[in-house]
Amino acid sequence: LFDACGRSEWRRQRLAILCYHGVSISDEHEWDPALYLNEESLRRRFERMNRLGCRVLALSEAVERLAHGTLPDLAVSITFDDGTHDFYLRAAPLLKEFGFPATVYLTTYYVDRPFPVFEVALSYTIWKAENIHALHDINDLKPYLRDLYRHRTDPYATASGIREFAAAMGLSAQERDALLTRVAEAVGVDLREFRERRMLTLMSSEEVESLPDLVDVQLHTHRHRSPATRDAFVREIRDNRDRIGQLLGPEHVLEHFCYPSGVYDPVQLPWLVDLGIKSATTVVSGLAGPEDPPLLLPRVIDTMNLTDLEFEGWITGAWPRMLSMARLRP
Ligand SMILES: [Zn+2]
Description:
- This protein has 15 helices and ten strands.
- By secondary structure, the chain is α/β, with parallel strands linked by helices.
- It folds into two domains: about 240 residues, TIM Barrel (Alpha-Beta Barrel), CATH 3.20.20; about 80 residues, no CATH class.
- Strands 1, 4, 5, 6, 7, 8, 9 and 10 form an eight-stranded parallel β-sheet that branches.
- The protein is globular, with a radius of gyration of 21 Å.
- The two termini are about 25 Å apart.
- About 45% of the residues are buried.
- The site of zinc ion has 6 residues, from strand 5.
């Protein structure tokens, strides 16, 4: 069945844009299996794509051929969101080994700040907490605490109060990092290894500059936000474009975009057109087809939660096709 679907005309008109975030340096995939997968799983995916005979195309070529209806059989594009240090360490060598091109949507704010990304690092620390209730001993934090009992099952919920505190206090990146240390010490988490191995940090400017040619760096906003007002939105893209342009040179073409956290507003589409953006990807699950607007391309969100069989179902088109046929029935 997978084989027949893979060679169908329906699949030939479509592109599987794989969406990844990070590849674990340590145990990140146990903390957030929807955000991180381990290297072994990523290698298995790549091997499976080779066995199926997938054609892995650079995104710029793939979206053009999608628009012209000239995609090869089993066309796939690989994208990584954010541009983490672990991408550089784990994913880039694997891409080189397999000879697969990929796009990394780079958010640039933390590229110039040598701290772990506060929001996610906080969630990771909360998940690891030995004694979560010790947070009550941090006086200024007390009024913001909630959902402490969920710290293992939904660490983001528990961390949300602390994030609110940081926002209310207007803390800088450095002050947020100091708060992360205070929280970790209070709840009994040793962050030394985490910091030494640069877990949950972004690539440094040197790392961005030394990425292999197979990796195309594209836009993801400067501060990882997607404002619904024109000026703020345009500024996010411009700051992002300027910084990547400084790193990779003015001749590096930046016309592909990924909505941060998949958040978008239809009012943003004409702004993206004005900014010269040719494609934009979401976190809506699906194969990109001729019916999809180029600025709202769905992706196949590949995570630890997907089995190899489900992955194959997505890549060959068997699974999305079954879903669409089921939807057509009364
Ligand atoms: Zn992102």
